[in-house]
Specification:
This protein has 225 residues and is mainly alpha-helical. 48% of the residues lie in helices and 11% in strands. The chain has two domains: 75 residues, Aspartate Aminotransferase, domain 1 (Alpha-Beta Complex); 98 residues, Orthogonal Bundle (Arc Repressor Mutant, subunit A). A hairpin with a 6-residue loop joins strand 2 and strand 3.
């Protein structure tokens, strides 16, 4: 990334170290290194992001923005465009924790009411056996690995807290479990691959219909989520 200046590197490193960053914070960071307010100089802001992404594309990364469907705010982050959700989680979490996370996001994404959440009780009662891939099933002789079979309620509770802290999941205003902003940033391809309909205006996965409606101000979205 030799074509990038210190300002570009500062933005990239800040996002990598902070994780998902609100639009206001990112705009403040941008103004700090460029002396240009992105609101007043949107073309300069967009040109900088395009230049950064051109260089990041060589290493399969992207500086991406997304809308958090629970608070309507835009967040920015640097994401890996190649790795799947298991690879992205695998450096920190155990196999049962990853299986638990996949079970939670699938339950949220496949909810026909599009409420964008799951109750804590329902999350804790998810069966991890269903997250075994065909390959794992064959290699284990179709037996459920002990690590999944004996993943306790208390372990699930601690794991939920970890995922919320790391912004993969979140606590909604009504006390349920929702997707964290990191999930919206990193799992865009997963949503598409699992046929989660996108908003026709903002193009984000339509996980929570009410926020999509408020965000895009289009009643037609009620029919596509």
């Amino acid at each position: 990334m030799s074509a990038l200046g210190w300002q570009h590197h500062t933005l990239i490193q800040s996002l990598l170290s902070r994780g998902p960053t609100s639009e206001k914070e990112f705009h403040d960071m941008f103004e700090g290194v460029s002396k240009k307010n992105p609101v007043n100089y949107p073309r300069i802001f967009n040109d900088v992001l395009l230049k950064i992404n051109k260089e990041l594309s060589y290493v399969q990364f992207e500086l991406r923005g997304c809308r958090n469907q629970y608070d309507g705010e835009v967040y920015y982050g640097v994401v890996n465009n190649v790795a799947d959700e298991q690879s992205k989680l695998g450096t920190k979490y155990t196999v049962p924790q990853i299986a638990f996370y996949k079970g939670v996001i699938e339950a949220i994404a496949q909810d026909g009411t599009a409420q964008g959440c799951i109750s804590s009780i329902d999350a804790l009662n998810l069966r991890l056996e269903s997250q075994m891939t065909a390959t794992n099933s064959e290699s284990q002789g179709a037996a459920v690995p002990a690590a999944l079979k004996y993943f306790s309620i208390s372990q699930k509770e601690k794991t939920l807290d970890e995922f919320v802290r790391d912004k993969w999941l979140c606590h909604t205003s009504d006390g349920n479990i929702g997707l964290g902003v990191r999930s919206f940033l990193d799992l865009r391809s997963w949503f598409r691959g699992n046929d989660v309909p996108p908003c026709e205006v903002c193009n984000e996965a339509g996980v929570k219909v009410v926020i999509i409606f408020r965000c895009c101000m289009s009643s037609t979205l009620l029919y596509i989520v």
